[in-house]
Design goal:
28% of the residues lie in helices and 24% in strands. The strands form seven sheets. A seven-stranded mixed beta sheet has the order 3-5-1-12-9-10-11, with helices on both faces. The protein has a five-stranded mixed beta sheet with strand order 7-15-14-13-8, sandwiched between helices. The protein has a four-stranded mixed beta sheet with strand order 18-26-27-28, sandwiched between helices. β14, α10 and β15 form a beta-alpha-beta unit. α10 runs parallel beside α11. The chain is globular, with a radius of gyration of 28 Å.
Amino acid sequence: MDDGRYIGTSVPRIEDARFLTGRGAFVDDVHTDGLLEMAILRAPFAHARIVSIDLAAARAATGVVDVFAAADIAPDFPDGLPEIPIRLAPFKGFEKHLQRPIADAKVRYVGEPVAVIVAETRYAAEDAAALIDIDWEPLPAVVDMDGAVDGATLLFDDLGSNVATAYTVSRGDTDTAFRDAEYTRREIFKTQRQSPFPMETRGLIAAFDGAAGTLRLTGATKVNYFNRRHLAAAFGLEIDDVELVEVDVGGGFGLRGELYPEDYLVPVASRRCGGRSVKWIEDRREHLIAANHSREIDCDVEIAARRDGTILALRATVRGDLGAYIRTNGGVVPSKAAQFLPGPYRIPAVAFEVQAILTNKTPVGTYRGPGRFEANFCRERLIDMMAEDLGLDPAEVRLRNLLTPADLPFALGELVPGDTNAAYDKGDYPAALRRVLDDAGYDGWKARQGETDSDGRRHGLGIACFVESSAAGPPESVRLTIAADGGIEIRTGASAMGQGLETALAQICAEVLDTDIASATVLHGTTSLLPSGGGTFHSRNTVMAGNAMRMAAEAMRERCLDLAALRWNTDRDGLVFEGGAVRDPDTGNTLTPAEAAAFAAEPLVTEAAFDNEGKVGFSYGAHAAHVAVDPDTGHVEVLRYHVVEEIGRILNPAMVLGQAVGGVVQGIGGALFDKFLFDADGQPLATNLGEYLVPTSTEIGEIEAVALEDYPSDFNPMGFKGAGEGGIVAVGAAIGNAVVHALNETGIELREMPFDPVSLCTQLKDIREKEARR
């Protein structure tokens, strides 16, 4: 760059060169000598006992190297079959409902691993799987939360309940607020079960040397140091003897990188096969039935307000369907839905009950903006309903209740058990809403809601506001090395999921050292690079790894100043670091970092770890959606979408824009398409792309994203706030409100996602039939 400045500049992504030229290396691109392939026989029943398993025919099949079930491998673990641990939201009771890598006596969802086949080719493994003979005793399946709470059928017979945990949290006096309120309304909202849909499915390659006691697992990502620790414990290995290797990743969005049964089964297969490398690549059907689902909650929520729209209180029961087991981070969904239900508003009193419920469906994890997407839909739809009841403008109601700069910071109270310190940091929430209203031309829409175009479609504009946390979790680490040839190597414990990690760290390094970004190489995610790392989740990389990068680069400047003073035999205090080198103003001498490394006769190395000590920053903003709805077919088209988000400080505007636009696209999927259905026996009805619909380019209208940086975070030196999830969290809410405004003459009220043609046509038909009966 001509001016030497990188932060705040749309530097082209370093990663893109290899991706655009076909040089990306994904896990299925990795091949080794003697590589074996693995297939998994998965449960065909949602709930059944395993009476017996006969593996003989499969073991005798051509090309098969090994076949095993639970009984074959349990003795190989120090403490028997391990339980997959909880990583986040470890609420009391969850520990009783953990999953083991392979079913032993009972299966609890379609897709649960029952047997593993290892063969010379995947084809041979799949063919052998069909030869396994299992005697099943089918059991009744629990497929919805009402049936689960009833308890007539139990997933875990000895526990007496399908409610894994329940708790209540509150702030203020809700009873008095509701008693004295001039207006109340109660509604039940539901968000459907859905899942992230990365282009690349999951995959792993394990090389387990039993004699040496080492395990190398290629294809890991997201939270590799956490996973390494627990895999080492499960297999009775030393942590340093377990290596998790990260390669390129075709998308994550919360789903990739958590511990799954396969993270244990692939290493087991390699160990049983004498240490030969074993590869498992998930096919798309496996992905849809076995990888984490998410989002499914219902929220029975009631609002209390004055007649002028001032909100006095919220109370709710939030129930989350967590599927058959508590997986590593599944409890985040209902707990964060409750925490973010008040949103960015000044609500004096709130009271929430949270229930995490087990059903005979695929277990749940997180999906980009977990709990926030769901909470925003419930709250923002309810605010629009309240505005309609009171004859008020939806935007004015929001502006009346949004937290202002004078209200911030704002203590949340104990909205998550044990967490009494969380608080929204500084900001101007009304300003963000006003910006999106201006961008969307809201004033001109007030008289246009529901207008009909020449095709008979009705148009509507919907708005929604949000607040979002970022950068929780453990410290993040960086090691910076500069060689005598000028090469810069950056190592980080963070993982890359496609968000531009390499570019972000190289930008910060180049900014601090005032050097060329092209000289930097960024290595990440592999556990042999550094002793520790936090990983990638909760929009934390730019905040955590970025600040660690700055600290390491600043330490490198100090190291160069020390070496220059030593070389020139002068006082260090008189030297300056500028223009990418140490300079002595008195003599004009300069010393670059590369020259300093040559003088030291070894590469220069600095390390840093950044810990925000649990103080997370809160981004915030607003969305507006312009939709056209065909009342005859129920088809919804998003014509234009606006996002405004305050993120504290912008590192790379192009990457921030990409995150926002990508989030909107996924949110449109959640609002209009994505949906898992199950029949009464717990059989999944969406196991391919003809049944599980996702948006394509033809379903996406014009998206305008604006990032603001008026309120840098006080919780990290660079002022960053995460920008990975603000684009998705309010999409369902904004589109839902837009559809209602488009169909305002019908009186439709949307309480469930998605707003697909079948559901809209059904509701419109019901409305017409009720009117006819009158």
